[in-house]
Amino acid sequence: MIGMKKLLVFALCCISVITVFAKSEPIDPKYGIGTVPVNNIGRVEFVDEIVIPASVDLNNCYERILTWVKGRFTQPNVTKGEILSDNADSRRITLRIQQNLIFKNTALVTDLTKINYNLNFAVKEVNGKKVCTVTMTDISYVYEEEREGGGSFTAEEWITDDEAFNKSKTKFLKTTGKFRIKTIDLFEMIANQTKETIETL
C-alpha cells in the first residue's frame, strides 16, 4: 500500500513538472491583445499624440521636426527614406520609408525583414492644446523572398490580433509574433524621438 502511495505521489509530481514546462511564457502586455490598432476601414494604424508646451511656437516646432526628419531618416539602417510632402501652411510632413528590422544577428545567423511604411507628422492646435500627431500607416514587409513561404506581406496579414496569436490568444505564432514585437518597438522609438525633439525647443 505504501509503495502504491509513493508511486502515485511520484506520478503526480511528474504531471506537475510536465504542466509547468508546457506552459508558455506570458506575453508582455506591451505586445498583447489590442496593442496593434486597426482603424475603421480595417487598416493597421499606429497613432501617438505628443503634447507641445504652450510656450512653443507651432511654426518653429514644425521646422524643428522637419529638420530632424531629414537627418533621422537618412541613417545607414534606412535603405530608403523619401519625403512625399511637407507643407508649412498646414504644418504636415509625410514620408515613405523602407528600413531593416533585425530579429537576430550573430556570426552564424542574420534574420531580418525589410519594413515599408508611411510616417505622418501633423503639428496643430486642437481645442486650445498644441500637439504633434505621429501616425504610421501602410505597413508592409519583405521577408526571405528567396525561400519558399517568403515574400511580401502587409501588416493586416501579419501582425494583427487575429494573425499574430494562436487561436486561444495565449501565445505568439512562431512566424508572425516577432514582426508584431519589432513593429510596435519601432513606432514607440519614433514617437519617443519625436517627443525628445520637441522637448529641446
Topology diagram in text:
Layout: H1 2-22, E1 46-51, H2 58-72, E2 78-87, E3 92-105, E4 110-126, E5 129-143, E6 151-154, H3 155-158, H4 161-164, H5 177-199
Antiparallel strand pairs: 1-5, 2-3, 3-4, 4-5, 5-6
Architecture overview:
The chain contains five helices and six strands. The protein is of the alpha+beta class and 201 residues long. It has one domain: Alpha-D-Glucose-1,6-Bisphosphate, Chain A, domain 4, CATH 3.30.530. β2 and β3 form a beta hairpin. About 9% of the residues have low confidence.
Cα Rg = 23 Å
Please count the helical segments.
5
What oligomeric state best describes the polypeptide chains here? single chain
Outline, from the CA principal axes? globular
Strand content: 25-35%
Number of strands: 6
Sketch the major β-sheet.
Answer: 6 strands, antiparallel
What level of helicity do the residues show?
Answer: 25-40%
Average residue-wise pLDDT: 88
Structural class: alpha+beta
Named CATH architecture? 2-Layer Sandwich
Q: SSE string, helix = H, strand = E?
A: HEHEEEEEHHH
How many domains? The number is: 1
CATH topology call:
Alpha-D-Glucose-1,6-Bisphosphate, Chain A, domain 4
Low-confidence stretches: 5-23
What are the key terms here?
6 strands, globular, 201 residues, alpha+beta
